[in-house]
Design brief:
With about 525 residues, this protein is of the alpha/beta class. Among the domains are: about 30-135 and about 275-375 and about 475-520, Vaccinia Virus protein VP39 (Rossmann fold, 3-Layer(aba) Sandwich); about 390-460. The chain contains 20 helices and 12 strands. The protein has helices spanning about 1-5, 20-30, 30-35, 40-45, 65-85, 100-110, 120-155, 165-180, 210-215, 225-235, 255-275, 290-295, 310-325, 360-365, 370-380, 380-385, 395-410, 430-440, 450-460, 465-495, and strands at about 90-95, 110-115, 185-190, 200, 205, 220-225, 240, 280-285, 300-310, 325-335, 500-505, 515-520. The protein has a 7-stranded mixed sheet with strand order 8-2-1-9-10-12-11, sandwiched between helices. It is globular and about 95 Å long. About 30% of the residues are buried. Residues about 160-250 and about 270-275 have low confidence and may be disordered. Pfam families: Methyltransf_32. It comes from Ploceus nigricollis. This is MET25 protein.
């Protein structure tokens, strides 16, 4: 109740007088408590995601624990959305070093364009992708050995079907070739070459055994044996050839079958050639006005993703999604709220500028503003603090005292330059101050060491006070994040071409504090 929570502050001075009530209010208005999120399990179920998932490359072998967790969870969701929408092209905005992009292309055989504004990131992504492919080939080789072993075991466990009429099988396969291809069905060739068997699998793992073919059974729903599935799942997609005619060597091939085999072989070679690079890192600065056709020449029906898109890039990702008919879905996880541009922060009239906040018309009409301090607070990680990963109090104290110094000694209250991660490189407070002043292009020669230490001693007793203040900011952080995320969701709800949109908690917030994804799918007619 708003009236109850308002009593946490003094009515006259507006100072905080009840910390406990303040904490309860913050929890009440957090995203996890408001009930507006859609559970990830419900989304995957609605998309009819195969619960067994896809096995193969393990991201934790190539990424740290945090990035591995993010990539594995998000890539499964992206693949599910892509399958649901019937698309194979993905655009990864703010792709960075290409962790998500390369995994999507190798694990799920999606054609991914990773766009990042940093050329060093793009170049790094190219090199990293090259190294990953070597590891992928090792997985492929390991998978083939496993497949061979499983196949031999199967051959020993059942009698050879000598009476199988290879010509009948071949003709049946040829008759069904076009329909099987259109359904995206795949074949694992020569599973048991000595028996002349050909196992067939669709993307839904539906199969047609040799017995079905001989008897003319029309069902395509027979499951592959568990042993074959286990072997198949180990292989990357490009280890499974497109449908081709039977490889039985019984009797002479008719001319029609020879032509069919030749055409299939050419198509397979062409496909494999084009799939040598399913991930394309590109360098470009993305804004709300960006025309994707200018960057991607073969743009087709696709979906747009962003894993921790920074500042305004998250908002612009949603704007590009709504404006481009080719983009059928979006899955965006934002971060760096402190870098958002705000329309009503400085009360400046800039009619042509596109702002990061607010996005929805409701908050625009109210002239809503968060302010930089609130946006900085939204970046804090309550869940990490709750499990004992405390705030870096000493570095925050260093930064606070530094600000006093540059205001009192240099008269500087605002600067376009940033101190950055100077604390981790500094051996002492004196070293920290001098390094920081150089970054800010301020003359440190007029500031003796003794003066620097005087400031340190003057405020040292207030370090606990600073820690308490920052803990209050941590408690409030989820409420501010709610405002930013709901603004983005409301923006999508305001669009007429959106079939469904929602907020989904993707990640473990202890591993990845910015864990909420904004997801939307367009109407099929759009």
């Amino acid at each position: 109740d708003d009236d109850i929570f308002s009593s946490a502050f003094c009515e006259n001075s507006e100072k905080l007088i009840n910390v406990h009530l303040f904490a309860l209010a913050a929890k009440y208005y957090s995203l996890s408590n408001l009930g507006v999120c859609t559970p990830l399990e419900d989304v995957l179920e609605a998309l009819k995601r195969n619960s067994e998932g896809v096995t193969g490359i393990k991201p934790d072998e190539f990424m740290n624990n945090k990035k591995s967790h993010e990539v594995q969870v998000m890539s499964e969701l992206v693949d599910s959305i892509a399958n649901y929408c019937g698309i194979k092209q993905v655009i990864d905005i703010g792709s960075g070093k290409g962790y998500l992009s390369s995994f999507l292309s190798m694990q799920y055989n999606l054609k991914v364009y990773g766009i990042d504004s940093s050329s060093s990131n793009t170049n790094g992504a190219h090199e990293r992708n090259r190294k990953l492919k070597k590891h992928w080939r090792a997985y492929q080789s390991r998978g083939k050995e496993s497949l061979k072993s499983q196949s031999l075991e199967m051959a020993n466990d059942r009698p050879v079907e000598n009476e199988i009429n290879c010509k009948t099988i071949s003709e049946e396969l040829l008759n069904n070739a076009n329909s099987l291809q259109s359904q995206g069905q795949m074949i694992i060739q020569n599973l048991v070459p000595s028996c002349g068997f050909t196992e067939m699998a669709t993307l839904e793992t539906s199969t047609e055994t040799e017995a079905d073919l001989v008897t003319g059974t029309q069902s395509h729903e027979t499951k592959l044996s568990e042993e074959v599935l286990a072997a198949l799942n180990v292989l990357p997609v490009d280890a499974v050839d497109d449908f081709s005619s039977s490889h039985c060597n019984c009797g002479e091939l008719c001319e029609e079958e020879k032509v069919q085999r030749k055409m299939t072989s050419l198509k397979t070679k062409a496909r494999k050639s084009s799939e040598l690079n399913l991930y394309f890192p590109l360098t470009s600065c993305i804004t709300a006005e960006t025309e994707l056709n200018d960057i991607i020449t073969d743009l087709e029906d696709c979906m747009m993703v962003g894993l921790h898109t920074c500042g305004d890039l998250a908002a612009n990702t949603l704007r590009i999604f709504t404006a481009n008919p080719e983009i059928k879905a979006v899955c965006s996880v934002g971060c760096c709220y402190h870098l958002l541009s705000e329309q009503f922060e400085n009360q400046e009239e800039c009619h042509d500028q596109v702002w990061g906040f607010p996005m929805c018309q409701y908050l625009k009409d109210k002239g809503w503003c968060c302010g930089r301090n609130a946006r900085m607070s939204a970046c804090l990680a309550l869940e990490r603090v709750a499990v004992g990963q405390m705030l870096p109090t000493e570095s925050l104290f260093y930064r606070a005292v530094l600000q006093v110094i540059i205001e009192e000694i240099y008269g500087v209250t605002k600067s376009d330059r940033h101190v950055g991660k100077t604390f981790s490189k500094s051996s002492s407070f004196i070293d920290y101050v001098r390094r920081s002043l150089k970054k800010l292009e301020l003359d440190d020669s007029k500031l003796p060491d003794s003066c620097i230490m005087d400031y340190y001693e003057k405020y040292k007793h207030r370090m606990n006070e600073l820690e308490a203040f920052n803990m209050l900011k941590v408690v409030l952080a989820p409420c501010i994040e709610v405002l930013i995320l709901l603004d983005r969701l409301c923006y999508l709800k305001e669009q007429e071409n959106i079939a469904w949109s929602g907020l989904v908690k993707l990640f473990d917030p202890v591993k990845s504090p910015r864990c909420y994804a904004v997801i939307a799918l367009k109407n099929q007619s759009c």
